[in-house]
Design goal:
Largest sheet: none
Distance between the termini: 43 Å
Order of helices and strands: HH
CATH class of one domain: Mainly Alpha
Shape: elongated
Number of strands: 0
Number of helices: 2
Length: 92
């Protein structure tokens, strides 16, 4: 069992866990919405509401990913997070 960091904010561990959980919930809901829309069983009004919800979920997920990228950059080089190089992809 690890000892909490006394210099870290009290809510840091809870915030990290809830941020990941929130991302996962948003992504799951977004995938579910896409499946419902692809079925084509929704009315136009329901489709528009689902689309609006999907956009909100997409933005929430994108914000979470941007924050995660920033955390990785800060962990990689706290003195120069903007100098971090993007991860190389295996794609040609």
């Amino acid at each position: 069992m690890s000892t909490p960091d006394p210099t870290a904010p009290a809510s840091a561990a809870a915030t990290d866990g809830s941020a990941v959980a929130g991302f996962e919930r948003s992504l799951d809901e977004l995938e579910s919405l896409v499946q419902r829309l692809e079925k084509g069983d929704l009315s136009l009004d329901e489709s528009l509401k689902a689309y609006e919800r999907g956009i909100a979920l997409f933005r929430r997920c994108q914000t979470a990913l941007d924050q995660a990228e920033l955390r990785v950059r800060l962990l990689s080089d706290p003195e120069d997070p903007d100098g971090a190089q993007p991860f190389a992809t295996d794609a040609p």
